[in-house]
Amino acid sequence: VNLVNGAGETVNALLEHDDVAGVSFVGSSPVARHVYETAAANGKRVQAQGGAKNYVVVTESADLERAVPNIVGSVYGNAGQRCLANDVVVGVGEVYEDLRTDLLEAVDGLTVGNGLNEDTDVGPLITPESRERVAAMVDEAVDEGADLVVDGRGFEHPEYPDGNFMGPTLLEGVTTDMAIAQEEVFGPVLCLASAESLDAAVGMVNATEYGNASSIFTERGGEARKYRYEVDAGNIGVNVGVCAPMGFFHFGGRKASFFGDLHAQGEDAVSFYTDKTIEIERWNTA
After folding, report:
1. Rounded Cα distance, 242 and 44, in Å
2. Torsion region of 93: left, alpha or beta (phi above 0 gives left; psi -120 to 50 gives alpha)
């Protein structure tokens, strides 16, 4: 295994080099598209995993006592810096008010701090620039009409004054025409939205250009089945906050979340790194 450090020039050299037979990539969707197009144009096998915009839907039948901790862990775990984070939460019908109340209570109890401490729920963002970008997205959402219910932008940790910390943030009244409902946040921000019906909620989930993951919390099999078949995402969770598949299943991804044919993990990964040969023999015996 060779580790080669570099930026765009290095990547393009690999994408175009005759000795490179295949390229597997994980990153933002614009770069994933570039990797896919450039490598494919040079006759290479490609799996290019892009960005995400993951929604979680909570129906009136959901068990909120179980759902809320899962949702909060998904949104704020690792400070929201993972591709399977669900940063938009949609309450369907009459469950919305109870869901809102329980989420606010749970968010209020989160501890921000050093990720190496066992009592920390929300760690720092990876760079100062990342923190500034997430804060700017919150600013834009407020300008577009979202209500800032919990504001973590001004958080400062007394022990780490130079840390890239941002407190848990919660926006309410988020609609699909807002940038924050369409773009990946990658930070500790929960966007709360409402839908009159499950059909309307599914429409909201499918309104983004991404199709990485989505979860539903419900106690009705019919609702879970509907969600499973109608949501255009490669990883679907039912009563699961972070729907990360086990390694023996492929990691899904659709639309702008994935470019290629064979996904990562599972049998797809084996096939991606395998050239198959069909051998036909005939022996003439005496």
Report:
1. 32
2. left
Contact 86, 71 (CB under 8 A): yes
Q: φ and ψ at 66, to 5 degrees?
A: -95, -35
The structure tokens 């959402």 sit at 141
Instruction: Give the Cα separation of 15 and 7 in Å (integer).
Output: 12
pLDDT at residue 286 greater than cutoff 80: no
Tell me which of 244 and 132 has the higher pLDDT. Answer: 132
Helices (H), 43-127: 64-76, 95-108
Query: Which residue of the set 58, 83, 122, 192 is catalytic?
Result: 83
**Residue 275: predicted pLDDT:** 92
d(CA 171, CA 152): 11
Q: Is 239 left (phi over 0), alpha (psi -120 to 50) or beta?
A: left
Contact yes or no for 100/211 (Cβ under 8 A)? no
| Torsion angle defined by CA atoms of residues 110, 244, 88 and 201, in that order, rounded to the nearest 10 degrees | -140
Residue 1 is predicted with a pLDDT of 82
CA distances from 209 to 54, 59, 134, 176 (A): 11, 24, 20, 12
CB 124 within 8 A of CB 130: no
Give catalytic status of residue 83 as yes or no: yes
Closest CA to 251 of 271, 275, 269: 269
Angstrom distance (rounded) from CA 275 to CA 152: 51
With a CB cutoff of 8 Å and minimum separation 6, the contacts of 19 are none
Lowest mean pLDDT of 1-10, 32-41, 58-67, 207-216, name the range.
Answer: 1-10
Q: How many CA atoms lie within 13 A of 182 on its CB side?
A: 11
**3-state SS, residue 150:** strand
